[in-house]
Amino acid sequence: MKVFISWSGEESHKVALVLREWLPSVLHSIVPYVSSEDIDKGTRWASDIAGELDESSFGILCVTKANLGAPWLNFEAGALGKSVDKSRVCPVLFRIKRSEISGPMLQFQSTVIEKEDVYKLLKSINDACGTDSIDESRLEKGFDVWWPFLEQDLGKIPNNMLLSADLIFSI
Prior knowledge:
Elements: E1 2-6, H1 10-26, E2 31-33, H2 35-38, H3 45-55, E3 58-63, H4 71-80, E4 88-93, E5 111-112, H5 115-128, H6 136-155, H7 160-170
Parallel strand pairs: 1-2, 1-3, 3-4, 4-5
Helix pairs in contact: 1-6, 5-6
């Protein structure tokens, strides 16, 4: 099953790349798509993205403080959510709270980067895999093995917001 991972901005892009590498470790049947990595050179990027948006059954939006109002993220959310029956869209909130979300993204159930909530996201993706889904006990075991790697890789992403605040207070 194809999973489209949408991003906008540097921090969001780093989250997308971490998820692109991590998700298939837990769910082997999914094929994640991140535009910066999966568009072949010489390809018309807009056509490639449009095709992937159309073919994907699940979309993940990497949402950060810096891209809350990003038009491109909202465009891709709308394109992914085009068919209520066919596709699912989940904003993944990185270093932000649900209360900070507004606008069109509110219509989708979001995931915060906490073990229990990310596991629920994986269960939803697994359910969307249909006949390619894995037994829940295998999903849980695989998730428990791979969760520390996700936590570690996301923890390596610099927190630009804190760095900026620290610079202001030290002046």
